[in-house]
Amino acid sequence: PPVTATPQQLAPRRRTRQILVGSVPVGGDARVTVQTMTTTPTADVDATLQQIAEVTAAGCDIIRVAVPSQDDADVLPRIVERSPIPVIADIHFQPRYVFQAIDAGCAAVRVNPGNIKRFDDKIAEISAAATAAGVPIRIGVNAGSLDPRLLAKYGKATPEALVESALWECSLFEEHGFQSLKIAVKHHDPLTVIDAYRQLAQRCDYPLHLGVTEAGTAMQGSIKSAVAFGILLSEGIGDTIRVSLSTSPVEQVKAGCHILSSLGLRPRKLEIVSCPGCGRLQVDIHRLATQVEAAFDGFPHPLRVAVMGCVVNGPGEAREADIGVSSGNGKGQIFVQGRTVRTVPESRIVEALLEEALKLTQATGAE
Ligand code: SF4
Fold first, then answer.
1. Distance between CA atoms of 345 and 336, rounded to whole angstroms?
2. Would you place residue 146 in the very low, low, confident or very high pLDDT band (cuts 50, 70, 90)?
3. Is the distance from the beta carbon of residue 308 to the nearest atom of ligand 1 less than 6 Å?
């Protein structure tokens, strides 16, 4: 069954004001959402929509597209119209694209105050346009593009500098009565991220978008993000997350979904439980686990599939799962809900697991 965190396991969710990113609520009592960014040139509409479809299938709730040029701003209406999930326009250098994104029907706009020229002068106009369209704005402060005034004051992108930058920009919007805001303060160091978000959580009630920026390659970045998000979410801090990895957006979304399901904040779809292997190993467990994971990719039912490498602990572990295999001597003993159902040659293990998974989900009427 899907695992859900109990109040005893995680601190109560911090109370934040809720905003609507298109049809997706963020903050308040809304579930924690996963988002990512496309990597295609935004102006390449077909490629961008294809990537949006792929991340949506992987579990993405909200997509962000970069708008670095006029060509990108011009195609926003076509992307918004055909995207299955809300589209956020990410705007760095040109305030006029903010207005174009709002006119295009984008669900939200992300601005980086450190990068938008004469941004402060435009806030009244942006507030008015965003209010009229019901579009929230994300203040996205990034260590790499911190306001030079704050860099001079703090010497580097400290948690205090990131927080001051974000709250300063929020105050400028607040002066115009605009509070449909969401905040991110990103840094590549997870400890700085944790400190900064804890401070923000103390000082405002805006929903928070968690991110460790430039986190690195798939392994390093996933671990850094999981550590930072895990600690913050366990303290009730965080309303939406983005895992930034030097890999495809689909992998980023999968990592985000795994982090949430590990914390019980999102139902588990499918879980592969595989042993690490040891001197008792009687099969190439790394290859087998990878093959099983690939074969079950996209399997829609919340099964736990055990892949065990020998007959010592294998049968016991495999019995704990919905289905499983305990391998050894060129064979695989297949278990379904605690019962051995058959033994197959090693070359047929993956196929047999899939067959049993389908039978099981059909028999139990899983949806
Ligand atoms: Fe070692 Fe067997 Fe346990 Fe795998 S299941 S770690 S091979 S004892």
1. 17
2. confident
3. yes
- Burial of 192-217, coded b for 16+ CB within 10 Å and e otherwise, reads bbbbbbbbbbeebebbbbbbbbbbbe
Measured distance CA(51)–CA(36) in Å, rounded: 11
Q: What is the pLDDT of residues 147-170, one digit of tens each?
A: 888 999 999 999 999 999 999 989
Distance CA 31, CA 211 (A): 17
- Residue 310 CA to ligand 1 center (angstroms) comes to 5
Q: Is the CB of 314 under 6 A from ligand 1?
A: yes
278 has binding-site annotation: yes
ipTM of the complex: 0.97
312 lines ligand 1 (CB under 6 A): yes
Q: pTM here?
A: 0.88
Q: Cα 80 to chain center, whole Å?
A: 20
Q: How far apart are CA 27 and CA 237, in angstroms?
A: 10
Q: What is the pLDDT of residues 272-303, one digit of tens each?
A: 888 888 888 888 999 999 999 999 988 888 89
216 C-alpha vs ligand 1 centroid, how far in Å? 31
Looking at the CA of residue 310, tell me the nearest atom of ligand 1: 2
If you take atom 6 of ligand 1, which residue's CA is the nearest one?
277
From the list 236, 235, 179, 189, the residue with the least C-alpha distance to 211 is: 189
* Four-point Cα dihedral 271, 193, 213, 254, nearest 10: 10
Q: Establish whether residue 273 lines the binding site of ligand 1, counting it when its CB lies within 6 angstroms of any ligand atom.
A: no
Pocket lining: 313 vs ligand 1, CB cutoff 6 Å: yes
Calculate the average pLDDT of the chain.
Answer: 91
CB 140 within 8 A of CB 244: no
Given a cut of 70, is residue 3 above it in pLDDT? no
